[in-house]
Here is the input.
Amino acid sequence: MYRRKKMLAAMLITNFMLFTASANAASASVESQNARTTKVVSFASNALTRDHVTGNDELTYKIYLPKGYDEHRADGYPVLYLLHGSWGDETGWDDFWETLDGMIESGDIDPVIAVAPSSGNSYWVDSAKFGAYESAITQDLIAKVDQDYNTVSDRKGRYVLGYSMGGYGALRYAMAYPDLFGAATLLSPAIQRDEPPATSGAVERGSFGDPYDPSLWTANNYPTAIDSYVKQPNRVPVYIFAGDDDWNHLSEKEDLPPDAYKYNMEVQAVRLYQELNRKNIFNLPFEKWEDVPGSPAELRIINGEHDTDLWLIGFRDGLRYMLGKAESDELSPSFSADQYAPKRKGAVTTETASLVSLAAGVDAENVADAADGNEMSYRLYLPHGYNPDGKTRYPVMYLLHGSGGTETSWDKFWPILDTMIEEKKIPPVIAVAPVTGNSYWVDSDKFGAVESAVIRDLIPLVDRSYKTIASRGGRGLVGFSMGGYGALRYSLAYPDLFGGATLLSPAIQDGEAPATSGAVERGSFGEPFDPARWTELGYPNALKSYATKKLAVPMYMIAGDDDWNHLSEKEDLPADANKYNMEVQAVSLYQKLHRSNLFDLPFEKWENVPGSPAELRIVNGGHDMNVWAAGFEQGLPYMFANGLQAATAGFKDLETHWAKADVDSLAAKGIVTGRTDSEFAPDAAISRAEFAALLARALGLKANMTADTDAAFADVPSGEWYSEDVVAAAEAGIVKGNGNGMFQPNKAITREEIAVLIARALKASGDKASESGSGQTADFTDESRISGWASDAVKQMAQAGIIQGYPDGSFGPHRQATRAQSAVILNRMLDSME
Here is the structure.
């Protein structure tokens, strides 16, 4: 039995983290590098003395005193009560002290005292097995800390934080003792709205009866505590924080039911958030359509597991929230158009296409929001450097707008897209943003066969008309609000067409649509609304066919915790209308898509459940650009990192070559071309004329071709394909020939010559990389063979990281440079200039 429990400790949510950090049980320690003091204290607790657990009368805790702690400070210090997880003790928060030091030192928060008590596997409640730990903390420990240290000795100066099992305790204390605590932070809290899973520590360890007693669980669980909480005047703000990759209970297989994902932490976190913040738990008056006056709370779900790396982020921002400071941009994003000032902008135009599928199925009396006859307009984005005659083919992002969409719906996103491409967060893309009004992106009598038009007509048209990667790996979907519904539907119904999707506050529902929603009111699913049509087109139905095709479409989904609260509609919707809220629906979709074994693949018990790839984020924000801009910036890189193809010139001899990404990047900008349409010849030598032409194109140099300059070199006659580029480079002071009026255009260029030309090019452009850098030093094994005229340039370019040596430590100054090497060096040069 002990062995089994030890195994579960490594796997189950409440057994995950054992913080037996390297602390020794000495009575005191001073960590001088930060000048903070930590001390372990044990004292006789009246509550523990009175309980029935013999030999367990002392309560042990670790005290953290901040740098410069002053026992006579007039204002006193706020106190953080830190509750560890399963198997923990007073060392359970040792990994957090450095973060706390840094926040205080930087002025991010004011100095605080922190107290980390030890309670084993108690779940922080009074129990016959472990002892009266709840009473010991709330009655004895707080009183002792207030007596022994200079504290703010009332609820306004006390905060409770907990991770895992400690999150359960922190929530209980916040709800049961609102007179003691001013705010709480729950990090991956081991909570359950209803009965806990049979394999959980709550059932197995004896805190709620040994054997487990459901009535004890109910008596101590947070819904019961909320019943008393709502009857008193204090409000305890609660910061709820979890990772989307925490323990998946479906991994336990036959030990738990088929719907065991209902126990997962992100599900329970969003349920708690509904109970506290999205319901009118105090039964206060409020006007219809106004904010529902719930208890103050915040919900954050980010990428992460059940570990310290995740909790350090939540600890940092939870403290900020509780102490009235601004959260980080990561968890509380904000949009400003001024954030995006790209130097190179793509071209955005409005196009109109006649699409066969739109010719039928439109109710002529209700075409105000429908496409005009068989025409559909769309906004087209072509990236900077797009060449309709070039060989580069680009991935395409299909952008689906929200309700009432127009040609301007994506205008705020174009600078974001330009900036992401310029900063190399994503490769260059084509983007197509169709305009369909209130269609919900489905075929309907009112708005026309929009879905068919996009899938059957628009996509083939775009592939015929532009340089696209005409395969599922070259197509992505992004949609906000109603467009999120469409992006999800298209991903699931047509996985053979799309390689990734990003859903920004998607207007989706698992089950019936709310009676006041656009899905019901606007006619996309029948006028009057046809529930059967809604069910037919809804994502739960689409998931069934998606599962059979086994073509995974990676999805990135993001929503704000302050999006529209359907309970504010009052009598128009049922009393549990919070089930329609977007954060609830996003979590529900994530369970069905990623946390279930959707494709029915084999996996071993306790292993990861092989769901469809997806990521979930819940951040601070509403139904607006603050959330959508952040999701757009995060979602597109996710799609490319999970299979979406980058722009490619399609050279067959580069498919597995180490320089493919650099060549494709330059080809997309029209800087490099192949030796033939299908071959780049990466390992062939490159001539001096070819490299001069590459530099001229990369820097946008144009020659002042006059009778005096068109023959800058005797062996560069006018009319040659490279003449103007060589002259332009000469006029810029980049190429200088051999001193005898000759350029030797067809001679293979050497690596040291390239170093000199790159250094001159950077100097001509005013870039500091020509003077210094932080890359490899020029300590090459063949340094003595580098020509004197090239020595400084080689050293500068090596230090800048633009030119590197060979694995054996040599530079190879007189080796002929290859076309692949030249492309990589040129791409690094351009990177250094940005």
